[in-house]
Design a protein that fits this description.
heterodimer; A: 86 residues; mainly alpha; B: 188 residues; 7 helices
C-alpha cells in the first residue's frame, strides 16, 4: 500500500520532464502540477530542464535567420518569372 | 477610397524573395528545399493571378501561397506518419529504466550564459543545426508547434497522430534539442 502511494506522488525524471513540456503548452491537471511541484523540490536537474525548456520556447518563437538568396539565384528566379509572364 | 492592392510580379524577387526564403528556410531547414518552395510559390502565384482580389496585400498573398507549399511539402515527405512514428524506447537514450536521467545526459547549465533579451544569430544557427538532427516527422512537428505555434489538436489532426503520441514526440524533441544545444554551445 505504502509503496503504491509513493509511486503516486513521487514521479521519475522522465515523467517530470514530460509534465514540464506539457505545462508549457496546455493546462495540466492539478495532480500533475502537484506531482511536478514535489519532484522539482528535490530534483535540481529537472528544475534546470524546466528553465532551459522555457529558453528554447522563447528563442524558437522569435526565430530569425540571416539566410538570403544569392544575386545569382535571384536573377535566375527573375528570368523564370519573366519567361512565364510572356 | 483606398486603393485596391495590385500585383506586380516583376518586382516580386526584389521585394519579397529574401523574406519568403527566410520564412521557408526556418521551417524546412534546408536551403535547396526552401529555394524550390519560393520558386514554386512565385510560379503558382503567376498561374493564379486572376484569383487575387486585392483584399489582402501582395505580400500577404504570396505568404499564403508559400504556407500552403510548405504544408504540401511536409505532406508529401511523410505520407504515413503513424507507421513511421518511432517507438517510445528511443527515450531510453535520456533516461534509465527507472526514469532517472542518465549520467551523461544530466542537464548542465546552458541557461547561465544566455541572455534571453537578445539572442544572437549564432544561437539561432546552433538551433538550426540541432533541428537538422531531428527526423522528418519531428522536424515538421517542431515547425508547426514551436515556430508557427499551431495548437496541439490541430497538429494531431493534420499529422494523424493521437494526443499521447503527440506528447511523446514533443517530449523527445525537447530532450534532443536541449542536449544538442548544450553540446554545441558549451562543448559538453
Amino acid at each position: 500500500m505504502e509503496n503504491k502511494s509513493n509511486k503516486k506522488f513521487m514521479i521519475s525524471c522522465k515523467e517530470a520532464t514530460m509534465i514540464v513540456v506539457k505545462k508549457a503548452a496546455i493546462n495540466v491537471t492539478f495532480s500533475e502540477r502537484l506531482k511536478l511541484f514535489l519532484h522539482l523540490l528535490i530534483c535540481q536537474y529537472c528544475r534546470l530542464f524546466e528553465k532551459q525548456n522555457k529558453i528554447i520556447d522563447n528563442i524558437v518563437s522569435n526565430w530569425k535567420t540571416n539566410k538570403k538568396l544569392s544575386s545569382k539565384q535571384k536573377n535566375a528566379l527573375k528570368l523564370k518569372i519573366e519567361s512565364e509572364i510572356k | 477610397m483606398e486603393a485596391v492592392n495590385k500585383l506586380n510580379p516583376k518586382e516580386w524577387v526584389n521585394k519579397y524573395s529574401d523574406e519568403l526564403f527566410g520564412f521557408a528556410y526556418i521551417r524546412v531547414s534546408d536551403e535547396d528545399t526552401a529555394r524550390d518552395l519560393i520558386q514554386d510559390t512565385f510560379l503558382s502565384a503567376l498561374k493564379n493571378l486572376q484569383s487575387f482580389k486585392g483584399e489582402i496585400s501582395e505580400k500577404n498573398w504570396l505568404y499564403l501561397i508559400l504556407k500552403n507549399k510548405i504544408i504540401d511539402h511536409y505532406r508529401k515527405s511523410s505520407k504515413t506518419p503513424v507507421t513511421r512514428f518511432d517507438d517510445e524506447n528511443e527515450l531510453d537514450e535520456f533516461f534509465d529504466e527507472e526514469g532517472h536521467w542518465r549520467k551523461d545526459d544530466l542537464p548542465g547549465k546552458f541557461n547561465m550564459a544566455v541572455n534571453s533579451s537578445q539572442f544572437s544569430f549564432e544561437f539561432y544557427e546552433i538551433i538550426e543545426k540541432c533541428k537538422r538532427k531531428l527526423n522528418e516527422i519531428q522536424m515538421r512537428l517542431f515547425s508547426m508547434k514551436f515556430v508557427d505555434e499551431i495548437n496541439s489538436e490541430e497538429i494531431c489532426k493534420e499529422m494523424e497522430i493521437s494526443s499521447s503520441n503527440y506528447w511523446v514526440l514533443i517530449h523527445r524533441i525537447k530532450l534532443k534539442i536541449r542536449k544538442c544545444i548544450e553540446k554545441l554551445f558549451y562543448g559538453k
